[in-house]
């Protein structure tokens, strides 16, 4: 059978490996760190840096297609890999989503609503941007942010200097604060034949910048639900995308506002493991392997809860809960703020 190469050995890579295995594929993980969650379940692992051209070359030659579990794959590594094997999703999706400024320009270029934004490379830029956008606002690093890291809220213009200093000179973008009632996301997939399939949008609750729960169905009107799915389809088609993508949205009084996109399987799509016949991980493997997309329709209401840091202490009691599926990532060390696993609870009508 074919071998799928996965860049990144975290929990997303692990769950992709498991899904690949279930479809009869082999998986080969490329991961710089030791003891990675995905390395425990994959058929093969290359532990090397993304600067190691020889290791990248051997990895590519050992696989049939390359995919990834995170969007910050260095461009230099992609250059090495792309001449040897297809990379799916393709380079354009990575280029657009690696940088919050490129991403916002792309989304607004499609006519989609985003928060008002401006690039910030100097304190002067920040003062000017605050003048145009107003407070409250959020200053975010353009690159490498996740789980709310690399972000500072600016509640009043007087906080500008402290906020600018907090990002230590990293290229940034100022975003106006979107007055949303709640957050939702669409997990969308596009196959090599150009067909698009979206999962039912989930409603996301964050705490301290980290996703806590995703609940399906989300609170959306029928027309909002249709808007969400249509805009996700437009994004994927515009990028000639192959694979699964997460599209994060704010529900605002004037309509849906796109927060960000992630060119990969997404934490807010984990509920599909126990709510759908074909979950997001299998859907991604299917797309990347050139299979037809699977049926992603939802057969249950589900709430996904992330197990973060000390939440792991609750595992013995969670294991006794009815209608609750545990998914643990096998991470050796528990740390505050680290995603250790999640549970999917089937919600039964009363
Ligand atoms: P992720 O882990 O999802 O990749 P991230 O670090 O890339 O997160 P964002 O998604 O940009 O961060 O922001 C994290 C959360 O902060 C959002 O889900 C939302 O709750 C809040 N937030 C971000 N930008 C805005 C905004 N412009 N207006 C209001 N709230 C915002
Ligand atoms: Mg993000
Ligand atoms: Mg986000």
Automatic annotation (TrEMBL):
One GO process term, biological-process aspect: 'de novo' IMP biosynthetic process
SUPFAM superfamilies: Glutathione synthetase ATP-binding domain-like, PreATP-grasp domain, Rudiment single hybrid motif
Superkingdom: Bacteria
Cellular component terms per the entry's GO annotation: cytosol
Binding sites annotated in the UniProt record for ATP: 100, 140, 145-151, 175-178, 183, 206, 259-260
Keyword vocabulary terms for this entry: ATP-binding, Ligase, Nucleotide-binding, Purine biosynthesis
InterPro entries in alphabetical order: ATP-grasp (IPR011761), ATP-grasp_carboxylate-amine (IPR003135), ATP_grasp_subdomain_1 (IPR013815), PreATP-grasp_dom_sf (IPR016185), PurK (IPR005875), PurK_C (IPR040686), PurT/PurK_preATP-grasp (IPR054350), Rudment_hybrid_motif (IPR011054)
Annotated GO MF terms: 5-(carboxyamino)imidazole ribonucleotide synthase activity; ATP binding; metal ion binding; phosphoribosylaminoimidazole carboxylase activity
The ATP-grasp domain, residue ranges: 104-289
Pathway where this protein functions: Purine metabolism; IMP biosynthesis via de novo pathway; 5-amino-1-(5-phospho-D-ribosyl)imidazole-4-carboxylate from 5-amino-1-(5-phospho-D-ribosyl)imidazole (N5-CAIR route): step 1/2
Coiled coil, from the record: none
Record's function text: Catalyzes the ATP-dependent conversion of 5-aminoimidazole ribonucleotide (AIR) and HCO(3)- to N5-carboxyaminoimidazole ribonucleotide (N5-CAIR). Catalyzes the ATP-dependent conversion of 5-aminoimidazole ribonucleotide (AIR) and HCO(3)(-) to N5-carboxyaminoimidazole ribonucleotide (N5-CAIR).
The family this protein is said to belong to: Belongs to the PurK/PurT family.
Subunit structure: Homodimer.
Protein name: N5-carboxyaminoimidazole ribonucleotide synthase
Organism: Salipiger marinus
Lineage, top ranks: Bacteria, Pseudomonadati, Pseudomonadota, Alphaproteobacteria, Rhodobacterales
